[in-house]
Amino acid sequence: MSELWVERYRPKTVSDIKGQEAVVARLQAYANNKSFPHLLFAGPPGTGKTTAALALTRDVFGTEFRRNILEMNASDERKLESIRTKVKQFARTAPSPGTTFKVIFLDEADALTPDAQGALRRIMEQNSGTCRFILSCNYSSKVIEPIQSRCAVFRFRPLEKEQILERISIVAINENIKIEDEAAEAIAQVSLGDLRKAITSLQVAASLDSNITRDLVYETTATAPPEDLHRYFLACKEDGFQPARRRLKDILNSFGLAGTDFVNQLHRELSMVRFLDEIQKLSITEIMAETDFRMVEGGGEALQLDAMTAKICSILST
To answer: Which of 28, 77, 95, 149 could make a disulfide contact with 82, Cβ separation 3.0–4.6 Å?
Structure first.
């Protein structure tokens, strides 16, 4: 596959963006006026922030929009020097003929250092007449208030399951892929509202087999099926520590999961386990949070997971 499907199926205009109706309505007004203020796009990954920025500039400047936009990933060029040189130099140059302003798109702006954000704030103020900034980030709280106050803020939300299923169906049809309904449901579940992850998961699975099944999706996304996680909880409740520990090892080995991945998947599935009451779920959540923290801080993965299993067994056996 010479071209990533994510890029191939990226919406080209603002009106093509799905799942962000409130955002699209405001951006369409800017596109119609052929002008916009500084913008800040905030929200989870894979929800259309980069797509919205590129689609808006295409609507404003036409097919030659690339000549009038500087696109940077702030996580790669996050230091003060990059802002003072590359960004400042582009902001000071004249717009292309026939346009009144140019655009600087800073992706992952929340990765900029505080000093870099301070310099960016001054550049935004000095060049607002001939240059517009579009900043995108996952966490707007990491962007300093002076920058936020200079921008129109747009909040992107995770896509609904139905919207992801619809898009997956369109991609599968266009790529001549047969995908089972259960496999599409699995992709929607593992993507967690991230359309980019959903399309990438579909592409990876399709590279192995044009007939995509549920098992293939879980195998290629390194995700344990919900029923396996439920069996782990059931083993902790009814079989005791050693059987539950073996069940844990089987899941890790079968799907190639890291310890933190297993804990995160276990946490997402906990609310769906019907044979546990609310008090037990509360206690298990605290145990998983402590285990995740210990592993992130460098604790031995095998020992921490065994300790988590022992604690869960202790709670469920009483």
So the answer is: 77
